[in-house]
Design goal:
alpha/beta, seven-stranded mixed beta sheet, four-stranded parallel beta sheet, 14 helices, elongated, cytoplasm, metal-binding, coiled coil, GTPase_HflX_N_sf, GTP-binding
């Protein structure tokens, strides 16, 4: 990037803080999984009890000395904090420990950088990284005051740090413009799917809940799936067929995590809008995870941030094969509506029930009715045929047609409006009594 960092390998010492505010406290086991997903070799894990963060180091000076000893003993290249560090805290800790120091946000950004496959994904990750690093440039230039002078070396009168900040701001603007273009392209694709009346089902859930495995099983695709955090970054869309619904788009999206850095939510907004614009959300939950309740809360929080919390949702409790005495089944609410399905994406158990529940939820707003049209309404009849809404038809002796229709209420309303009808008035006059 625009600044120098310590050269280092992957021998990492993890630092986890207990006793912090419950709202900012992190899960130590999840922290270990994050470090492993990033490719770190964990050589030591230090747990520190602290109720009030130190402005200088986050931790106390005694614990800094303890960390120094651990770095020397294990020849550590990297110290990772399971907490958000300020730029000055990172700089101060690196000065004392003489090795690289990153926080939880930096660790997640590194994983995202490794996982990004598509051009769009790489742009999104770079934007988040630049936003994060823009406040940390100063640490790379503590050895320089101003640019060198002399013939051929005179600069524009800026410090090197100011030059780098300007270059970084320009790069951020450039990436933002590119992502806006991607966003408009996605919006065009969504409008095309809307015009084609193809419903969209989006998989959401906590990272490593099994979304990609479920996606691969339902679509017979080969999207990268692994037992690691953030295995999927780039959204993938595939077409599937559902009974009584027909063609349906299934979208696999990035997993969520506790305290997902806000800059990542912003950078991935174009991707996350696939979920925000879906007709149905499949919220995949790891049924075997003891932390599943808090994971559900975190997912709902992020869905709220992107404006998707009020969309129709079907919960999919995955990995039922890891539970004792639990068989695949559908849970319904008081109205008899399917709200939760217990399945195993790995073994395929219960996926027929999931397809049944998806079709049911997508057809909640479906009208199945018989209408009688007058001979002069041939144009309206032709439009019903054009959108594939006619199940059967019979013609009376007086030339009137009885059409048995099955279509979304919104489609019927849109078609009738084009013909100058109000839906309630049309149903009242033309529905078969």
């Amino acid at each position: 990037m625009f600044f120098e960092r310590h050269e280092g390998g992957e021998r990492a010492i993890l630092v986890h803080l207990e006793g912090m505010d419950e709202r900012t406290r992190e899960d130590p086991q999840e922290f270990i999984e994050l470090a492993n997903s990033a490719g770190a070799e964990i050589v030591a894990f230090l747990t520190i009890n602290r109720h009030q963060p130190s402005p200088r180091f986050l931790i106390g000076s005694g614990k800094v000395e303890e960390l120094q000893a651990l770095v020397g003993e294990h020849q550590g290249d990297l110290v990772i904090f399971n907490h958000v560090l300020t730029p000055s805290q990172e700089r101060n800790l690196e000065g004392e420990l003489k090795c690289r120091v990153i926080d939880r946000t930096g660790l997640i950004l590194d994983i995202f950088a490794q996982r990004a496959r598509t051009h769009e994904g790489k742009l999104q990750v770079e934007l988040a990284q630049l936003d994060h690093l823009s406040t940390r440039l100063v640490r790379g230039w503590t050895h320089l005051e101003r640019q060198k002078g002399g013939i051929g070396l005179r600069g524009p009168g800026e410090t090197q740090l100011e030059t780098d900040r300007r270059l970084l701001r320009e790069r951020i603007k450039q990436i933002t413009r590119r992502l806006e273009k991607v966003r408009s392209q996605r919006e065009q694709a969504r409008r095309a799917r809307k015009r084609a009346e193809i419903p969209v089902v989006s998989l959401v859930g906590y990272t490593n809940a099994g979304k990609s495995t479920l996606f691969n099983t339902l679509t017979t695709s080969e999207v990268y799936a692994a037992d690691q955090l953030f295995a999927t970054l780039d959204p993938t869309l595939r077409r599937i067929e559902l009974d009584d619904i027909g063609p349906t788009i299934l979208a696999d999206t990035v997993g969520f995590i506790r305290h997902l850095p806000h800059k990542l939510v912003e950078a991935f907004r174009a991707t996350l809008e696939e979920s925000a614009q879906a007709d149905l959300l499949l919220h995949v939950v790891d049924a075997a995870d003891p932390e599943r309740t808090s994971h559900v809360e975190q997912v709902m929080k992020v869905l709220g941030e992107i404006g998707a919390a009020t969309l129709p949702m079907l919960e999919v409790y995955n990995k039922v094969d890891l539970l004792e005495s639990v068989e695949p089944h559908i849970q319904r609410n008081e109205e008899g509506l399917a709200v939760r399905v217990w399945v195993s994406a790995q073994s395929g158990e219960g996926l027929d029930l999931l397809a049944e529940a998806m079709a049911e939820r997508l057809s909640v707003d479906v009208i199945q009715e018989s209408f009688v049209l007058e001979p002069e309404q041939a144009r309206l009849r032709a439009q019903f045929y054009e959108i594939g809404a006619v199940v059967s038809e019979s013609i009376a002796d007086d030339g009137r047609q009885q059409l048995d229709l099955r279509l979304q209420r919104s489609d019927l309303n849109r078609l009738l409006k084009r013909e100058g009808w109000q839906m309630d008035a049309f149903i009242e006059q033309h529905a078969l009594q």
